[in-house]
Design goal:
The chain is α/β, with parallel strands linked by helices and 426 residues long. It is 46% helix and 13% strand. The protein has 2 domains: 4-32 and 220-407, Rossmann fold (3-Layer(aba) Sandwich); 44-213, Rossmann fold, CATH 3.40.50. The structure holds 5-phosphoarabinonic acid.
Length: 426
């Protein structure tokens, strides 16, 4: 279950008595839900307090969607889609639909081409929609929903309402009013949990369960992480350790963190992580810029910069100990490709060697490093990993005296769009 953490420097050297004291205050602020932005600390004990009734309800709905639909279209942007996308991509097989419905995302971009092609693809399939927006007013998913709702009404008539699930705030928002008016079944995004911290609520759970994955195991992994990281111990709490190392590197002149992985299944965990840390920390002229690379492909592109470009990056590897599946290089008769020296080596072992080689090259090139290793890619370990990142992100933002739970910068572009497009009231 454990995530192990390795740092290229000496972690114990980073812990001064002042820092320990600051960390303890931050920890208590989080645990007692009294820290800055306290109204949005509901995610901290959500895994241990989520009701069995809600879990069973979501499982039942997912089962119903699976038995009536070929495709579930999930409409949402940012925290309303990246968590479920990250989990589903991590667990699925790219070339085969497993035991769930096909989950397709929309509303995370605005594209007539995408929506037209999506609707054409849906034409000969049974479809369910899940529109997710906590505020219920975000423009991009609202635009996608206008088209897809119309599509559903044309196709299913009166029956459309039973195929449109709405996940939104309990008390406010245009989407909530619309759902009530149309009689769409509703799930609630808890008021005290923000979008990027909502993967363990119905926001993430319904699409993940519909895709056929075990949400109880996911929650269980998060619950284990919750219990593990509620203990204040700077020597064993890895969420604190990760935050402390990042903070140290930031102060030492490394404002960019690159998350690197050799596992393409984790590419949407990278996207989720970038949103989580970027939107939580990047404020008031402060914060680490989160970027990501997927190896080996990026070793043949951005690898040059990482090795040799301007020294402002640190690199965090996310490794998985056990491969889901594997192949062993076999001995070829003529050795025309001159690869026989690899025979007997698994492709996972190749990647481990590549990690070792890359890590030592980048260290020589002056790139400080953190390595996070998770045991395997399954629901339980992913639940643990995502909770670990959320907790680490909160410590990290508080170390910079930043409120991790607002996003004033995101509002700026939104207001400009409304002004440019003459939205009434702007
Ligand atoms: O983390 C956040 O709060 C944001 O990224 C939101 O998830 C995103 O802006 C979508 O908002 P909403 O769910 O209100 O449509």
């Amino acid at each position: 279950m454990n995530i192990s953490i390795n740092y290229s420097g000496d972690y114990s050297q980073l812990l001064s008595p002042e820092l320990e004291q600051k960390l303890q205050a931050i920890h208590e602020g989080i645990q007692t839900k009294s820290a800055k932005g306290a109204d949005y600390l509901g995610w901290t004990d959500w895994p241990s307090t989520i009701s069995e009734e809600l879990l069973q309800d979501i499982k039942g709905t997912a089962e119903h969607i699976r038995s009536t639909s070929d495709v579930l279209v999930v409409i949402g942007i940012g925290g309303s889609y990246l968590g479920s996308k990250a989990v589903i991509e991590s667990l699925s097989t790219p070339f085969q639909k497993l035991n769930g419905v096909e989950v397709i995302f929309a509303g995370h971009l605005v594209s007539g081409t995408y929506l037209k092609q999506l609707m054409a693809y849906l034409d000969d399939k049974e479809v369910t929609l899940n529109i997710i927006s906590k505020s219920g007013t975000t423009t991009e998913p609202a635009i996608a929903f206008r088209f897809l709702q119309h599509y559903m009404e044309k196709r299913y008539g009166d029956q459309a309402a039973a195929r449109i699930f709405v996940t939104t705030d309990e008390e406010k928002g245009a989407l909530r009013s619309l759902a009530i008016e149309k009689g769409y079944p509703r799930y609630v995004v808890p008021g005290n949990i923000g979008g990027r911290y909502s993967v363990f609520t119905a926001v993430g759970l319904l699409p993940i369960a519909a895709a056929g994955y075990d949400i109880e195991k996911l929650i269980n992994g998060a619950k284990i992480a919750e219990q593990e990281f509620e203990v204040f111990d700077t020597k064993s709490n890895r969420a604190i350790q990760y935050a402390v190392i990042r903070n140290h590197l930031y102060n030492a002149g490394y404002p960019i963190e690159i998350m690197a992985t050799f596992d393409d299944k984790l590419s949407y965990v990278q996207e989720w992580w970038k949103q989580l840390f970027g939107e939580s920390e990047g404020k008031e002229g402060k914060g680490i810029f989160p970027a990501s690379v997927l190896y080996s492909t990026d070793l043949h592109s951005l690898g040059q910069y990482i090795q040799d470009g301007k020294r402002m990056l640190f690199e965090t590897f996310l490794n998985v100990e056990k491969a889901v599946d594997d192949l062993t290089v076999f001995e070829a008769e003529n050795n025309g490709d001159e690869l026989n020296y690899l025979s007997g080596l698994t492709l996972h072992a190749f990647n481990l060697a590549c990690h070792e080689a890359t890590s030592s090259a980048h260290l020589d090139g002056g790139v400080p490093q953190i390595t996070l290793t998770m045991e395997q890619l399954d629901e339980q370990h992913l639940g643990h990993l995502l909770y670990f990142y959320m907790k680490a992100c909160a410590y990290s933002a508080y170390l910079l005296d930043i409120n991790p739970f607002d996003q004033p910068g995101v509002e700026d572009y939104k207001n400009n769009v409304f002004k440019i497009l003459n939205k009434p009231g702007y």
